[in-house]
Amino acid sequence: MKTKVKWGVLGVANIAVKKVIPAMQRGEWSEVVAIASRDIERAKGAAEQLGISKAYGSYEELLADPDIEAIYNPLPNHLHVPWSIKAAEAGKHVLCEKPISLTVEEARTLLEARDRTGVKIGEAFMVRTHPQWLKVLELVAAGRIGKVRSVIGYFSYDNRDLKNIRNILQYGGGGLMDIGCYLIYTSRLIFGEEPRRVCGLVQNDPGTKTDILTSAMLDFPSGPSVFTCSTQVVPYQRVQILGTERRIEIEIPFNAPPDKPCRIFVDDGADSSGRGAEILEFETCDQYTTQGDWFSTSIRQGTELPVSLEGSIRNMAVIEAIFRSAKTGKWEVPSVNA
Known about the structure:
Blueprint: E1 5-10, H1 14-25, E2 30-36, H2 40-50, E3 54-56, H3 59-63, E4 70-73, H4 80-89, E5 93-96, H5 104-117, E6 121-123, H6 131-141, E7 148-158, H7 175-191, E8 197-204, E9 211-220, E10 223-230, E11 232-243, E12 247-250, E13 262-267, E14 278-282, H8 287-301, H9 309-328
Parallel strand pairs: 1-2, 1-4, 2-3, 4-5, 5-6, 7-10
Antiparallel strand pairs: 7-11, 8-9, 9-10, 11-12, 12-13, 13-14
Helix pairs in contact: 1-8, 4-5, 5-9, 7-9
């Protein structure tokens, strides 16, 4: 008989209330039993809306609850590490929203906390558990497209709200932290390698000082990954994987819809229009459900997390190197050493 992992949620962020919590509640292994806010009324409102049994007026109270086994941390980026460490020290496993930290140095403190407390700490790259990405990685590993030689990605939206945390520099705002991290993470997954060096071009908003248009090239041993992310252009996302024999196109790589099937295209290039591509369609699923259940299963069965903390530190090292490159105008080498 399955015993669901009991989860608590820090904060009432939109992503938690509108997407992650409802999805986790549909899971086979996850049960959300408590939610906290620094405003008790907001916590009670979210709990009532979502059918959660416990509401707390502080994060500390939630962490002190002995019934809670795991914490989902969707707080603003600058609060990811301090509250994840506090959760770990309270004996709770932690699923932390991306980006895992603001710097490599900060991320390494999570590694120390994990090893000291013995809990699991993982970054919420939910794409890693979606069937379309599992299939992509399977096809790449099986050599279905030959040897991967290039990855091209785009991810953008248009958000000019000055009060939104994505546009507040001190909160860890900006496009590279918010969505560019996905393009880095999936490039590393596809190649199965780490980039030897990176270069970046960054355009900052003159008012918020956050990056609003960032392009980067990651030099992997097997080939380049090139991507652009933006917070102030037309919303769009796509990933192309070019191999020596075929290419794979992922139609909706990151915001996979929970209410309709996803598709990927495998194309041998015989028709330059792409109309001859093989279409692989995946049953409707919610990647936040699969993420929660995969994490909960790893707790119950003692298996590896879908996203390792060591890998998250390497992802942050690439982000730092892109920002450095934009300033120096040179190739920069990612370093996991603080």
